[in-house]
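Entry 14. Two folds queued back to back today. First construct below, sequence then structure tokens.
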Amino acid sequence: MLNKAMIEPVHIYILLILSIGFMVHVLLHPLLLAASGRDSWICAIGTLIPLLLWTVLVYMVYKRIENKNVFSLMFQLHPFLSYVL
């Protein structure tokens, strides 16, 4: 009997995440660099602060959940917060 390959929701999520990152890199970055010209390094330095804050937030959440399944934690939250996540 042949096993039919199915597209799982995880595969769709990964594809969306990768495609959004690719579109931002290809479409948005050239526009920012063209508009800012020689001052484009300020944009790169300006993104470090949100990146560091995001990294700290992800680390704190990782330490707090202690090897629990993220999807099961989402169902314990308020429905609006679950939808946003």
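Second construct, same run, same settings:
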Amino acid sequence: MEARLTGAVLRAEEAQRHLEEWERDLELAHEQAMMLQSERDQLCVRAEAAESQVMEMTWELATLRVQRPSGDQEEVTRLRAELLAQQTLARSLQQIVTDIGRSRSRSRSGVSVSRATGASVG
């Protein structure tokens, strides 16, 4: 009887250690998720600002085409180059935001898998 009680206590202590380990893993995953959310939010703001700049520059370019004589192509060329750079930046930022979203999805599914299998994350 005493041996059975000792075995039960040892199993309970082992289960407690596993629960504490899982709790630490979940806390770390949560911290990482919060950090990624913050980064994603900042990138969204930057992407929106870049898109706004693209729209402003597109409008300015269109206005210049209408208002300026055809001989003044230097400013139009400069604005076109800036517009292309801003469009590239906006696409890059959007891709980063998309990649972070995918990474968060994979992280969440990894935590779910680790819970189901008993594996630790990290």
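Quick look at the second one. The chain has one domain: 2-117. The CA atoms of residues 22 and 115 lie 8 Å apart.
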